[in-house]
Every structure is written in structure tokens, then in C-alpha cells.
Amino acid sequence: AYVVTESCIKCKYMDCVEVCPVDCFYAGENMLVIHPDECIDCGVCEPECPAEAIVPDSDAKADAWIDQNRELAALWPNITRKGTPPEDADAWKDRPGKAASLSR
Ligand code: SF4
Ligand code: F3S
């Protein structure tokens, strides 16, 4: 499965949800996650994310986020249409150390 990682936090651009053929994104307050059992590994969402937050689970960057995608996808509502990203999304893009800012 593909995995949404820390780079999504406070960016939440949501371009990813518009291209997913199986609608397997789930939305928290300031981050999205992918349901690992629903993702069909098509890869089309990966290049759509302006924050480069989406990686395959084989990527080392996914390690810290695989379990959280599974856990949070079960808690958060499904999202299939792009909404309005946070006003300051661009200011948070590429910033390190955002994990502590995740709203669960
Ligand atoms: Fe959806 Fe494909 Fe991305 Fe998986 S890899 S989340 S199926 S767009
Ligand atoms: Fe997040 Fe990128 Fe989607 S910032 S909401 S994974 S387009």
C-alpha cells in the first residue's frame, strides 16, 4: 500500500483524493491517511501531492507512518473530493518536525 507521511501535516492539499480510483483516503483535521487494505497500489496519487507526502510502503520514509495510516484510517471519515487547503499550507511545505503537530 501507499502511505501518507509527515509532510502532509498542516499542508493537506487534498489533490490526492481526486485521483484515487478506489477512494481510500481518510481525513483528519490537518492530515490525510490511506487505508492500507483498500489501496490497490496503483501509484497515481504519489506524483499529485505538492508536498511529496505520499510514498510506497517499501520507502524508508513510510516506516514511521504505516501503523498510523492503518490506525487513523479506521477512525477518520472517508474523503473523496478536494476541499480548501489551509491558508498557510505553503508555509508548512517542506518543514521538518511536523509530527508533533498532528491533530488526531
Ligand atoms: Fe489510491 Fe492508488 Fe494512491 Fe493507493 S496508490 S491511495 S489506490 S491513488
Ligand atoms: Fe496531504 Fe499531499 Fe494529499 S499534502 S492531503 S497527501 S495531496
UniProtKB/TrEMBL annotation:
GO molecular function annotation: 3 iron, 4 sulfur cluster binding; 4 iron, 4 sulfur cluster binding; electron transfer activity; metal ion binding
4Fe-4S ferredoxin-type domain mapped to chain residues: 1-29, 30-59
Key word Metal-binding present: yes
Ranges for region Disordered: 78-104
Naturally occurring in which organism (per UniProt): Acidiphilium cryptum (strain JF-5)
Transmembrane segments: none
Superkingdom field: Bacteria
Cofactor: [4Fe-4S] cluster; [3Fe-4S] cluster
Classification via Pfam families: DUF3470, Fer4
Keyword annotations of the record: 3Fe-4S, 4Fe-4S, Electron transport, Iron, Iron-sulfur, Metal-binding, Repeat, Transport
Protein name, UniProt field: Ferredoxin
Role, per record: Ferredoxins are iron-sulfur proteins that transfer electrons in a wide variety of metabolic reactions.
Alphabetical list of InterPro entries matching this protein: 4Fe4S_Fe-S-bd, 4Fe4S_Fe_S_CS, 7Fe_ferredoxin, Fd_C, FdxA, RnfB_subfamily
